[in-house]
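Quiz preparation item.
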């Protein structure tokens, strides 16, 4: 039997109402969705508004590799380890998108003995949040076209409408379409501005205001037109009324988990929802959250976009890696010995550690330990960490559960008491060009930034009205350069920007690097082909 399935069958999960009670939620603050899932009503904030926030721990990683590094597994392991040590702890994660689940990488609920349950529900339709976001997004698209059909009182320029359509599956054939109204295109739901809005809104009223502020296009005079002009903002908020409430589930060891919001970190801001994080900080003494992909993407956006909204910064950053991934970045497949590849691959984690240090937050390197790691490799990595003064911990939670994360849990608790001198990477007063260059140079190691003529024209225009907004760079997660093939560390390059747009409702300006795609395609052999369903409704395969 598959090890993941084996440990799931052995787990003693609690009814979700009992998990809610463990958080001291009142009966009318919790909304059950069956036996194993539920939502927490945002009115809970009213009762807890004067309660002091707990500590916040951000989990990030090195540059991703095909085998994965296990950020979600590590987040769960750390929380379970802290719970084992008697700490009051919660996890706050993003919701999985069907794009990766059915496409290339599978689901996002951890692995082995460090999993969140019920994994099949979470990875598929869950509580319907993604569907609600997709419906709201596409209703706004329909409202735009309906306005054009019935006379176009707003004088919209149908060739300058910037609001696309969306779908939560990979479908490259929809990247460009032509409808009876106009030329259009689809993006994946995780890249939708409404996904970003739901994930950044602080309450229902803020959600409605952000929806109203969406830039849908320009009129024939070149003036911007916002969603509020269509008078459907309340209808959009109504579609998202339930989706804005955080989803409550549990780990295999009954640690409470919020899974809410799912923006991608390469083409959006890559963090779970603001309301889930803020609520977890009220309900627990320690909140473990993660940011997508490597530290130069998800963590950068968490630290420069999300922290400004939650008005909190992490007390500790956990930087996840595996020896296998480090050897991949050291080109083990090109004839190098294990130690030669490991030594070369350490340049990647060294770059990410340097990135993290720029924020003046205590950090620790967490190594997701595999049975294939040799003693020679482990000793070399520990010696390197000691020499370079990097705190480090090896975690065996995939096989051992919380027991395998006790060392990391102890070290994180200790680090959380250290003085924190957090500072943002850039000031909001900087213009957009300065912000982009700051991120490119300080996070990616670029020497400069270049712009296509179209990108420069758009950014010049955006700089006139939105220079005070933070920047969200859409970039390949597979490399610290422009190229998806440049694994390892820093290469001499100039960051190439091909497009720019404002996500006015979300509250940031997006710049897209050359080659970035907002509607992914399926691989030749998608993960969906490896999934089978049994007669009792259970699944086999990587979810």
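Solution:
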């Amino acid at each position: 039997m598959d090890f993941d399935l084996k440990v799931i069958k052995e787990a003693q999960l609690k009814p979700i109402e009992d998990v809610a009670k463990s958080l001291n939620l009142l009966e009318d603050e919790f909304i059950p969705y069956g036996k194993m899932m539920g939502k927490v009503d945002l009115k809970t904030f009213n009762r807890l508004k004067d309660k002091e926030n707990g500590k916040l721990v951000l989990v990030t990683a090195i540059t991703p590799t095909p085998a994965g590094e296990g950020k979600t597994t590590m987040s769960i392991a750390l929380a379970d380890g802290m719970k084992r040590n008697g700490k009051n702890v919660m996890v706050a994660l993003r919701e999985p998108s069907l794009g990766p689940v059915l496409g290339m990488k599978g689901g996002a609920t951890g692995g082995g003995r460090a999993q969140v349950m019920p994994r099949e529900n979470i990875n598929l339709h869950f509580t319907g949040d993604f569907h609600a976001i997709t419906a709201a997004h596409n209703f706004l698209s329909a409202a735009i076209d309906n306005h054009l059909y019935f006379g176009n009182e707003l004088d919209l320029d149908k060739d300058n409408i910037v609001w696309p359509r969306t779908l939560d599956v990979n479908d490259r054939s929809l990247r460009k379409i032509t409808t009876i109204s106009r030329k259009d295109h689809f993006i994946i739901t995780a890249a939708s501005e409404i996904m970003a809005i739901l994930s950044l809104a602080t309450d229902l009223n803020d959600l409605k205001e952000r929806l109203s502020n969406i830039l849908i296009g320009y009129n024939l005079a070149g003036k911007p037109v916002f969603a509020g002009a269509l008078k459907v903002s309340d209808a959009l908020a109504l579609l998202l009324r339930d989706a804005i409430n955080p989803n409550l589930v549990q780990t295999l060891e009954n640690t409470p988990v919020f899974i809410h919001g799912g923006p991608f970190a390469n083409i959006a801001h890559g963090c779970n929802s603001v309301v889930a994080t803020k609520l977890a900080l009220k309900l627990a003494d320690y909140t473990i959250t993660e940011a997508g992909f490597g530290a130069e993407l998800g963590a950068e956006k968490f630290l420069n976009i999300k922290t400004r909204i939650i008005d909190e910064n992490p007390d500790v950053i956990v930087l996840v890696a595996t020896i296998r991934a480090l050897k991949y970045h050291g080109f083990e497949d090109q004839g190098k010995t294990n130690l030669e590849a490991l030594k070369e691959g350490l340049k990647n984690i060294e770059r990410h550690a340097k990135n993290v240090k720029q924020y003046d937050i205590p950090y620790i390197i967490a190594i997701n330990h595999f049975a294939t790691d040799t003693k020679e490799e482990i000793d070399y990595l520990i010696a390197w960490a000691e020499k370079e003064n990097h705190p480090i911990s090896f975690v065996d939670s995939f096989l051992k559960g919380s027991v395998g994360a006790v060392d990391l849990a102890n070290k994180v608790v200790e680090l959380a008491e250290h003085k924190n001198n957090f500072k943002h990477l850039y000031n909001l007063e900087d213009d957009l060009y300065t912000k982009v260059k700051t991120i490119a140079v300080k996070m990616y190691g670029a020497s400069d930034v270049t712009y296509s003529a179209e990108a420069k024209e758009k950014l010049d225009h955006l700089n006139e009205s939105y220079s005070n907004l933070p920047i969200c760079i859409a970039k390949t997660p597979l490399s610290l350069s422009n190229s998806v093939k440049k694994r390892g560390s820093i290469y001499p390059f100039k960051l190439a920007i091909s497009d720019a747009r404002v996500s006015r409702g979300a509250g940031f300006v997006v710049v897209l690097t050359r080659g970035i795609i907002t509607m992914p395609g399926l691989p030749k052999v998608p993960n969906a082909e490896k999934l089978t369903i049994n007669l009792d409704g259970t699944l086999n395969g990587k979810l």
